[in-house]
Specification:
Length: about 290
């Protein structure tokens, strides 16, 4: 059995997803343990760990699911507070909400879809942008410490939503026949080329698109999370495990951690923007009656 204090450290480290602290608490070997997928994403069940509920219950959730729920709840509450009583002269929160919706509308929806299609798909694209952003940003929020999109499940769900949206747009706006004809048989190509081109377009549109959307979002957030843990974990190791003169090595790792935090903030916005923009492009291409 571990001593009580070490048990508490292990539990706390598991909750905050800090592999260096967890490894030190378990092994006490005084060595630096870099972040790994086993430590970072094999997360303990939340209700089982903190409330003693049996871990075989279907409603139990691990910490990353809890982080996703917190992120989406925060988004819903903020927008509800901003628009529950809209005014002609908006207050600060309403102005912030309108600024956010206006950003998506002017920089993604209007530029790609135009006014007619934009009105139809703005709610979906705005919800997608802010949902991804709020789940991304949890990776740099103390106490949450992991992005809700840094495991493959959520990016896959979002990619499926995008997939359904552009197929629906193709069926609804262009018609089933026109959609498949434009997608698989691009006009202006000599007919013998369709033997080669049509299978490539089939794989590209109906397989590569959703897979690439999911992988781009997932890998950016996962790698960023591991780099943050590496920087701050190494800082903790130099200061609290080695100590003495070796503590000076914590300066570059701590600086690197702060720089990576700013980079992750930029990545959180950029990946939400890219995912939403590509979804809008796919919808526009699918809805077009002619190419």
């Amino acid at each position: 059995m571990l001593p009580c204090s070490r048990q508490e450290i292990t539990l706390f480290a598991s909750a905050l997803n800090l592999p260096v602290f967890t490894a030190a608490a378990r092994g006490g070997d005084g060595e630096f343990h870099p972040p790994s997928l086993d430590y970072e994403f094999d997360l303990p069940l939340f209700l089982h760990t903190f409330f003693g509920i049996p871990d075989d219950q279907p409603y139990d959730l691990n910490r990353i699911i809890l982080v996703r729920l917190i992120a989406i709840l925060a988004m819903v509450v903020l927008f509800w507070l901003a628009f529950r009583r809209p005014k002609i002269v908006p207050g600060k929160l309403q102005s912030l909400g309108e600024l956010g919706i206006g950003f998506v509308k002017s920089n993604i929806v209007d530029d790609v879809l135009g006014e007619r299609l934009g009105k139809k798909y703005l709610p979906l694209l705005a919800a997608m942008f802010f949902g991804i952003f709020f789940m991304n940003i949890t990776g740099i929020i103390p106490g949450l410490n992991i992005g809700g999109t840094s495991t493959i499940a959520m990016p896959l769900v979002l990619a499926v939503v995008s997939y359904i949206a552009f197929i629906y747009a193709g069926f609804r706006e262009a018609g089933v026949g026109t959609f498949f004809r434009n997608a698989l048989f691009p006009p202006g190509v000599p007919w013998p080329m369709y033997i080669l081109l049509t299978p490539i377009e089939l794989v590209n549109i109906f397989i590569v698109r959703p897979v690439s959307l999911a992988l781009r979002l997932f890998l950016n957030l996962m790698v960023g999370h591991l780099l943050l843990v590496l920087c701050f974990g190494a800082t903790h190791f130099f200061v609290f495990t080695l100590g003495g003169v070796d503590s000076f090595f914590a300066i570059p790792t701590l600086l690197g951690g702060f720089i990576m935090t700013l980079v992750e903030l930029l990545v959180s916005v950029l990946q939400a923007f890219v995912f939403t923009l590509l979804t809008a492009v796919y919808i526009q291409q699918a809805a077009a009656k002619t190419h």
